[in-house]
Amino acid sequence: MFRRPASCPIIHPWESLLIGAVGALVTIGCDVLLNRLQVDDPVAAVAVHGASGAWVGGTLGKIYKNRADNNSIFSWQPVN
C-alpha cells in the first residue's frame, strides 16, 4: 500500500503491481539481511521505509523522467 499512492497519476495499473511486488521482495530481503547482521529493528522500519522507499523512489524517478520527456505527465490527466 505504501508504495503506490504518490505514483497513481503517472503509472499504469500493471506497473503499480510490478512496483509493489518488487518492493515487497526488497522489503523481505532487507529484513532478512538486517536479522542476519543482528541489527535491532523490531518493527522492520528500515526495511519497509528505507530499502523499499529507495526502490520505489528510484523506479518512479526513472518512470517520471521518461514520461516527462514525452510531456505526458504535464497534462494533469491520468495515464491511459
Automatic annotation (TrEMBL):
<protein>
    <submittedName>
        <fullName>Ammonium transporter</fullName>
    </submittedName>
</protein>
<dbReference type="GO" id="GO:0097272">
    <property type="term" value="P:ammonium homeostasis"/>
</dbReference>
<feature type="domain" description="Ammonium transporter AmtB-like">
    <location>
        <begin position="6"/>
        <end position="57"/>
    </location>
</feature>
<dbReference type="Pfam" id="PF00909">
    <property type="entry name" value="Ammonium_transp"/>
</dbReference>
<keyword id="KW-0812">Transmembrane</keyword>
<dbReference type="GO" id="GO:0008519">
    <property type="term" value="F:ammonium channel activity"/>
</dbReference>
<dbReference type="InterPro" id="IPR024041">
    <property type="entry name" value="NH4_transpt_AmtB-like_dom"/>
</dbReference>
<dbReference type="InterPro" id="IPR029020">
    <property type="entry name" value="Ammonium/urea_transptr"/>
</dbReference>
<keyword id="KW-0813">Transport</keyword>
<keyword id="KW-1133">Transmembrane helix</keyword>
<comment type="similarity">
    <text>Belongs to the ammonia transporter channel (TC 1.A.11.2) family.</text>
</comment>
<dbReference type="GO" id="GO:0005886">
    <property type="term" value="C:plasma membrane"/>
</dbReference>
<keyword id="KW-0924">Ammonia transport</keyword>
<keyword id="KW-0472">Membrane</keyword>
